[in-house]
Structures are given as C-alpha cells and as structure tokens.
Amino acid sequence: MSREQMLTWYGLVVGVVAWMWLFTLPATPVAPILVILFAAMAFAVDLLAFRTPPADVHSLAPLVLITASLTLGPVNAAWLAAIEGVVSGVVILLLTNRPRTSFSLFGRPLLRSGLRTLGILASAWPVGALSNQPLTDQNLTPLFLSTLFGFPLVTQTGRMLRELLQGGRSGLATWWRSAWPAILGAEIAPLPLAWLGAAIARQLELIHLTLAGLALVASAAILRRSSLNLQRQRRSVRELARLNEVSRAIIRSELDVEALCELIYREASRIVDTSSFHLGLFHGNHYTLMVRIQDRVRLPRLTVDLSENSGLIGWIRETGRAILVEDFVREMDRLPARPRYQSERPPRSGIYVPLIAGETVIGSISVQSYEPGAFDANDLRLISLIADQAAVAIARARAFHEARQRANQLQAIREVSQQITAILNLDQLLPSVVRLIRERFGYHPVHIFTLSPDDERIYFRASTADGADLERIRALSLRIGQGLVGEAAQRGEPVLVSDVINDRRAIRDTWQTRSELAVPLRVGSTVIGVLDVQSDEPDDFDEDDLFVIRTLADQIAIAIESANAYTAQQEEAWTLNALLQIAENVGRATTLPDLLATVVRLPPLLLGCPRCYIALWDRERNDFVLRAAYGLSRQARATLIDEPARSPFLLRLRERTIESEQINIETLWQAQDNADQWPALIPAAHSGALIGLPIKVRTTLPGVLVLDYNDPFIALSSRQQSLCIGAAAQIASALESLLLAAEAAEAARLEQELRVAREIQRTLLPTRLPVAPGWQIDAAWQSARLVGGDFYDFWPLSSGDGQYHELGFVIADVSDKGIPAAMFMTMARSLVRAAALDGSAPARAMERANRWLYRDSESGMFVTLFYARLNLETGHLCFTCAGHNPPLVYRAATGHIEELHTPGIALGVIAEATLAEASTTLAPGDVLVCYTDGVTETVNEALVPFDLSGLRAVIKTYHTAPAGAIVQAILAAITRHSHGQPPFDDITLIVIKRE
Length: 995
What we know:
Layout: H1 3-23, H2 32-47, E1 50-52, E2 56-58, H3 61-72, H4 74-95, H5 102-131, H6 140-188, H7 193-203, H8 206-252, H9 257-269, E3 276-283, E4 286-294, E5 297-298, E6 302-305, H10 311-319, E7 323-325, H11 328-331, E8 349-357, E9 360-369, H12 377-421, H13 426-441, E10 446-451, E11 457-463, H14 467-475, E12 478-479, H15 483-491, E13 495-497, E14 515-523, E15 526-535, H16 543-588, H17 592-607, E16 611-618, E17 623-630, H18 634-640, H19 648-659, E18 666-668, H20 682-685, E19 689-697, E20 700-709, H21 718-740, H22 742-764, E21 775-782, E22 790-798, E23 804-814, H23 818-836, H24 842-856, E24 863-871, E25 876-882, E26 888-890, E27 897-899, E28 918-921, E29 927-931, H25 933-936, H26 947-958, H27 963-978, E30 987-994
Antiparallel strand pairs: 1-2, 3-4, 3-9, 4-5, 4-6, 7-8, 8-9, 10-11, 10-15, 11-12, 13-14, 14-15, 16-17, 16-20, 18-19, 19-20, 21-30, 22-23, 23-24, 24-25, 25-28, 26-27, 26-29, 29-30
C-alpha cells in the first residue's frame, strides 16, 4: 500500500470514528444565530490560515471552536467542528491549485473534521464522567480547563500520526522542528482567550460577540499577512544565500565543462526536487545531455539530433525563453511546442530554462516531475538565475577548452610541418606524413592521393592502412570527379560526409567507413592531390577536424611542391651531368669493344634498367647482331652474342628511324606476351618491356641501344626520355668517330698507355701490407692492360688516444679503363685517402670524397668503391658501399657466406650523393673477401663468366688457409676458368682473416 493510500485510509477512519461518536450524543437547542456566527468565524479563520514549511497549515480555528464549546456546549460545538472541517477542507482545495488526489479530496477534509470533533468530545468527556452529568450540562470552568489541554493534545497527536504515515520518523522529526513554533504561537497560546469569548457570548449582546468575531478574523488576517511576509523574507534571505553560494562555487570551479555541469546539478538540487533533471549543451544541430538524471538514477550521456522535430528544447534554443509547465495534461494544447519524448510515464510538470551566453543559447536546464504543480514561478526564477551564471561560466570554459585545444592542434601541426618539410624525397615524404598524422592526431585510416597533370587519373601514394586494406586501396582506380576523393579533387574544396551510407558519391568497399573527410592539396589554384581521412563511426568529424586536416593539407601541399621542385632540380642537374659523363665516357673509348662495353654498362647505372644490350647493323647478314650485353645470364650470353637478332622490333625501329629526321624511342610493352618481336632474347632474358634507342649517324643506323626492364608497363619520364635521346646521340657520335679513326687512335692509345703506365703503377698501390697481431691481410691486383682503373689501399686510424687501433682500407673500380682510368684512379685514391684519414665515419668520409671528386674532376668519370674501418681489437667492421660489388664474409661459426650491402651510387656522378652505412663483426676464423667485377666477369672460351658462385666456392674450400693462400687460390681458380684467355677487366682482391 502506498503512503497516499495509507493517509487516505487514516483520514477516513478518524472521520468515521468521530462522526459515529457524534451521532450517539444528543444535541441541545441553541440560538441559530450563534451557530451561524461561530461557523462563519471558524470558516473565516480557516480561510486565513497560513502555511509553515514543509507543508502544514495553522489557523485560529481552535480558539473559535473552544469558545463555541464553552458557549454552545461540547456536542453542538462538535457538530460545528465536524461540518466546518469538511466544508473548509473542500473549499480551500477548490480555491487553490493543489493536486487533486484521494487524500486531498477525501482524506484531508475528513481528517480535519474528525480530529477537531474528537478533540472537543474527548476533552469534554472526562468532565462529564467525573461529574456524572450529561455532556450538555457541563460546569463551565472544568470544561474550559479540560478543553484547554485536551483539544491541542488530540489534534496535535493526530497530526503527528499523519506525518509519521506520510514521511516516517525522519518526516515526523522534520515536521516537528519546523511546525512547533507556529503550533505553540498561533494555535495553543491564544486558547485562554476562549474564556473571554465565552463570557462575551454569554453575558453581552450579540453585537459584542459579532465585534469580537470580527476582531478575531482581523487578527487572523494580520497573523496570516505577517507569516507570509516573514516567509518571503526568510525565503529571500535563503535564496540570496544560495545564489551567493552558487556564484562563489561557479567562480571557484575549474574551467571544465563537465565539472561545471555537475556543479549546476548539485546546486539546483538544493532548490528544487531534481529527481528528474537534464542539463544539455548544443553542438550545431546536436544536443548533448551532459547530466541526465531520471527517477534519481544517473543515466549515460546522450546526444540527439535536433534538425527535425526539435520539440520544447528547439523552441527554447530559438527564442531563448524559459517556460514553466504546471500540468502537461491541461496545458499541452497551449504549449509553444510539444515535448519530443515518448514515454509510458511522461512528466506532469516541469521547468525549462535556457543557458544564454551573450546572444547565444548554448544549452538548457530541464527539471521535471510526475506530479502536477510541483514547481512554481519562484522555482523558475531561481533556476533561471543559476542558469544565467552557469551559462557564462560554461561559455568561458568552452572558450578556454577550444583555445587550449586549438593551441595544442597548432603546436602539433607545427611539429608535423617541421618534420615533413625536412624531407625532400617524395617517396619518403608521403608515408611519413600519414604516419605522423596518425601518431599525433589519431586519425585512421589516412590516405594521400596525387594527381597527374597528363591525365584525369588519381594515383594512390600512401596510407596508414595495412594488409588486405592496403592492397585494396592500391588496386583502386580513381578519376577526377569519381567518389569523394575525386569530388574534392574536382571542386578544389573539402568534402565532409557524416554518413557515407546515405551519400551516393561514396564508393562502397569492404572497409567499414561511415564518415569521411577529403581535403584537396592545393598549390595556389592548382590541385595536386587529396588528403583523405575516414572513420568507422558516423558523425565522427566536426569543424575542429576540418580545421586540422585543412591546415595539414596546406602544409603537405607545400612540402610536396618543395620536394617536387627539389627533385626536378636534382633530376635536371643529374641529367646534364649524366649526359656529360656519357659523352666523355663514350668519347674516350678508343676501340669498338671498349665503347660497346662502356655503353651497355651506363644505362643500368643511370636509368635503373637491370639489363642493357647494343646491336650493330651487319651489312653482310642484313640484320642486327648483338655485340655487347649487360645483365644477361651465362647461357643467354653464349646463345645471343654475335648472333643475328632476327627481331621485328629492331627492324621496325630501323625503318622508322631512317625515314624520320628525328630520333624516336620505340617501346615494346608486355614483352612476354609479344615474344615474337625478339624470339631469341625475350624468353631467355625474361624481359618485361624493351625500349629501343636508335644510334643514328647522319642518314644511316649503325646500331640500336636496347634497355630491358622487368616492369612490363614501364613508362619513362620526360627527364629519362631526354637522357635517352641525348645518350643515343652521344653514342652515335662516338661510334662514328671510333669507326673513322680506329687505327690511328689505337696506335696513339697504346703509345700513351706505355708512357704513363710506369708512373701510375709506382704510386697506386701500397708498397707493404699492414701487419696486425691476430689478423692476416693480403691483397692482389692484376690489370687487364698495362694499367687499369682498379686500386686498393690501407691506412692506420687513430682512436683519439694516440694509439692506432683501427685499420682503414678501400677497394675501388674506376668507370673506365686504360690510361684515363689510371689517372682518375690516382686522383680518386688521393682524395679518398684524404677524406678518410681524419677518422670520419665511412659514409660521411666518402660523401666528402664524392664532393671533392665531383668538384675537381673534369673527366666525367666516376668510381665505385667499398670503404671500411676495422677495429683490430674487437673485429668490429663499419663500412659503406658506393655502387661497388658487395664484399663476401665467410662466417666460421655457421659456414655461411654473407654479402655486405649498403645502398649508394658511384662517386663523382652527382655533387651531393647520399651513402648509407652499416656494420658487422668479424669473429675468429671469419674471412672477408673484397673484389672488383673483373673477378666475377672473367670469361672462358665459351664466354661463361667465373661469376659469384665460383668465388664463393673457392672461399668455402680455402677458408681455413692463410689469407695469402686464399688470394692465390682465387687467382688460380680464375686462371683455370679462363683457360689462358686475356682478362676482360682488372682484377683486384683484398682478403682479411681473423685468426
């Protein structure tokens, strides 16, 4: 049974008992005018009753009823109390807007009637019992004294039982603390005046009683007014104190929105019942409930969309006005907007107050109740005052948070920008960009696409995705205007989609993308790419994300432009330098074999093709004959060199070149699918694509230079095409000159080589090999001619304490042969030694030597080398490889042979070469073998090279022998392989073995 039902039953029981007792007692005849006068006085003072918190009502009705008991008799006074109690209870309920409940309609009037009736009868009963007289003939003095004490005892006891049923012990204690002063002062203290009233009624005229009644009513009115004024003053004081506390709490609070919302909830709870309380903030079209209390239970934060059917909250946001709803049922049709919620138990009353900062409504406070009339205008006023102060604090906290967030974002953007602007290699820049964006800002996945000025395609460049997602993105084919990325590229403006499921432009795929932001990378008015970020949550990107991504996109565009400009400048310089080197290298060739060998080795170095061939036109055979090749296997060399090509591809190129005045590049894509264009070569070389460069001399075509790539869809850039055309022209000029002056040049070259050879040989190589405890060091050098381009050298290095604990050594191969190579070798040796003697790290020392070579050399030659520093105590080997054959290390512990690789290009090609550096440790028994390509490219009569496999076999066989024996074993194996054939290239060896 609920408390409401228990109170109702309590009132009914008390009323029925009182009325039943009253019906058992006989009434005495009295003057009707007196009954009417006393009834009017009782009703008037009840109407003028005043309320004390929490909810009790006090009046002078007990004084009137006791006076009536002394004047009319207890039974008549009881009838008067019973009837007036019911009537006044109902009338007062109808005159006020209190909730109509079963207790207020039935229980409370019957309880008031019953308690007053019982108070009169119960206080008069002891007097009648003691005097053995009927209640209608009581002695006046005993009756007055009995009623003076009995009536308050009965009525206040009934009140206490009511409060105990309604609020329990705590409710009773609260009621007593607040009500006893009013009970004592307004109801009990005036009771002795009943003796005076009875005397006036019994002994004076009716007019005197009427005047006394009017005075009593006036006193009740004055008492009511004084009580109301006192309540207002106390309430004002409490309100000011509370508002002052709220203001101080808000001022002392941190600039944190969540903490402020909790503070507002706590302070509002001190003013009104916040068992159902909502505090929400607006974010665009969304409304987020920061504090959400329902039936005193805290619920999780909720965000709703106000774009459609915004309800009362939307009306408050639009008008900035507060609203008090006393009863939704009665006022629903008069409300400016209907509530948006749908619930089986909707609220009956509520307060809705906007949070206004300046001219902007930033949120709202909602306090609701299931009872009608639970709030009044004063509650609305207090909540509004709190809301005004809270709105300013929340706006300030928001501004502080936004400023701090924006500062953090700008700081992160600045740091990212500093890192990406330092990268000038585009292939390194873009992966670094997406990685930094994910690390610093948490976006994932992040993609970067670039646009090609030559077509409408959009090219994928980098992503934070991996695995299958990365492969899917790489396989994606996009064009401008296609998908969200294509839309951003076409419009040149950001494209933000909150939910891609509802956007037709989005390309649906396996990635669970729900929201996406694509921002164009712009340089001026030109779009060069698109930065795309995605999320698997809808509505995951807002204006802050747009600001961050847009700012990053601007920085990325600048970085890309800088990288492109740097690359273009480097490529242009590289192209010019490469053409110069090609011209100088091919121009120095004095024999046809030298020229052809030089020609086929230059494109792999400069253009990156793994294989290169040159075919000359043979008039006798009326076909092209392959004269030189680089990158072919031994078997392919044996079957293709000096054999007719029988290639429709070459014949077609010859016809087009002879007919045209320009040099045209011919490309054969997907060579494996078009093997009939060169049946002998394409299957044997596993060619992907062939690029033919005609070597045109005037109106004839003496030869064709063919570049062989693994990529079947290789496309040369404009820079590479210019380099190819220039190289073809240089080769044609050199070939023509060589054919015209072959005999004279041969005699002059031989004479010059003999004259200079002796001087070079004396200064080129170390006179003595280093001797170090625990180490065996040996070397060998054999020139293919009287002089060569290979060299090696050793020098001790100080560790800083004056002791020489490290040994520096180098092995190198100049790009040319003969006397020019020997001269260039002399200079290269000196510069390399000078660059390394200060003890610099290998990569740094060789980069310095490269700058000197590039600056001091006008020959256009370059040199490949391997330079290392060996710690003679620990065996630690730090090295760099500048385009040279990787040395071999035999590991005694495992029996395996390793290659020492580092990326890097030959020295002297460009001014600023970047070399890598690596290190390893030589353990006891390990053998390091450094060599030049003359070792592995020595061929026999069948043109089968000695190759790397032959060198590995010798090392494995003789790894237990001393270093000198290993050197001799390698040379002997090369001699046996060549069967007395003259060496094709210089042979140089360094063998270092740790004992």
